[in-house]
Each structure stands twice: as structure tokens, then as C-alpha cells.
Prior knowledge:
The protein is 12% helix and 33% strand. By secondary structure, it is mainly beta.
Amino acid sequence: MPAGSGAEPVVFEPIYKERVWGGRQLETDLGRELPEAETPFGEAWEIVDRPDDRGRVAAGEHAGRTLQELWTEHREELFGAGLEGAGPDFPMLLKILDARRHLSVQVHPPASVAGELGGEAKTEMWYVLAADPGAKLFVGVKEGVTRESFERAVEEGRTEETLHVLEPEVGEFLFIPSGRLHAIGAGLVLFEMQQNSDTVYRVFDWNRVGLDGAPRQLHTEEALRCIDFSDVAPSMGEADGERLVDCEHFRVDRWRLEPGTPRGGGEPRFALYTVVEGTVSCGASTFGPGGSFLLPVGGAPLAAPAGAVVLRTTLP
Length: 316
């Protein structure tokens, strides 16, 4: 793909993940054609470069090639200059999540302990695309909860009593730094941007069994080493203008595209886009809600004849 003005967006084939807590809302809410008609899919990995899950280009000049191949062989051409030290794998992972049941109460390890535990650090953020009435996020701990009282509650089956609860609305977002205890509640469809990591330590799984009929594995000792117990009663995020999240791993902005006013394009660095409202055209492609793409160096501008909202993710 040439790195000139108007370069086309790169679209990847989603990788769908069956989850005990998943459902079919990606089909009903976002118009996806999901495989396996009865399977509960909880995650669509939209842009991913994991060792066992290499996102593959769906169409166009690089159709059939993986994100890993593009990142390795065309880094400066497609992604921009100055990224030599950004690692051998593409550093971010973009997902759409469908939670029909509560996810496990879990934590991702901070970099300070991830290596000792044999995992990878993981910071992420969520943006609410759809929410059933009363849907909840469980984030951080309640006032007065200590490591000792939390550990005792886990042992006695009272974990839920320790968790701080939020009831998010569509269009709200939440930053999840590594070390923050969290669980997505039933009835939510979320955009997720995260570091390229897949390390999760579960501490409570609502006393249920997995898809195989067996209790799901917990990682209580590892989780206790990772949880930030000073993270008491956190709130949903507050935007700073268009900027939603600005951390060392990614930046996420919310752009409101006005009818008839193209925006972006022609830039010296790549960006990831996800449509959250309306319909967006970019080059020869059109994207509806939930549509995600990578816009390379010199990419075409975005346009929305009837107006739209997109999330734009870049590296710091």
C-alpha cells in the first residue's frame, strides 16, 4: 500500500472468541454475521497481533496478510517513522465485547510483578456501546476494604460484597490500569482498547462452571499480589475535550464528525478507528457502528454525510 495521500483503510477479519459469559449481541446490535449459530461469542478481536491470533487483512492490496507481517515488513511505510523500538508485535489490541452474563472478577498484572508471575502487564480502557437498564461494572473496592478483609471475603464466598459498583451509560468510558480489580456485568457491549497482552488473574467467578462443565480456574494468590487496594470507589472517566484516555500505552480520542466536513487523513503516523455512532466513509470503504480499521500513513480522510462519532486510537 503506497504511503501517499488517500491511502485506503486496512480492514482485518475479526477473530471471534467463544465465552461462557457471551451471547449474540454482536449479531443483533452490530449486524455481524457470526459463525456457529448457537455459540455464545463474548469477544471480537478486531485488530490483533498475538502469537496464536494473528489478525489477517480482509481485502485490498494486502488481503490475506497478517498484521504481524505488515508490522514487521512495512513498519515505516504503513505505520510511520520512529517506531523501531515499539517491539516485535503490534503493541495494541482492539476488541468489541458482548457480556450477557457477568465476567469473572479479575485483575491484570502491573509491570512490576508481571515477569515474576510469568505473565504480561495489561492496561486497558472500555467505552460503552450498549447497556441494558441496570447493567453494572464492578471496579475497585469499597471504602474500608483492605487486602486482609478482601482475602477473608474471598475465602468465605463474599467477594461481591467488597466490590465497588458503577451503572454506566452509553457513551461513557472507564480506564483500567493494571492492578485495578474489575468485572464487566451482564448486559453490556463495550469497545476495548488494551496493551497487547492476554494475562488475566481471576479471583472470583460467581460460583459457576465453564463451557466444559467444570469450575473455571481461579488465580487467587497471583491476583492478591496484583490488586491495588488503594483503588477505592473509582468513577467513570471524564473527557478532556476530545481526549478520553492518555496513558503511556495508547491515546484514545472521541471525534464527532460533522456532516459534510471530512476530517483526518494525510497524517505521518497510523491511527485505529472504530465507529460508535452513524456511518463513516474512508476512501472506498464504508463503516457502520462497531466497524474498525487501521488507517496507515497518508490515509484518506473520514467523512460522515449524516454525522457520526468515532473513537481514534494512536500511540503516545
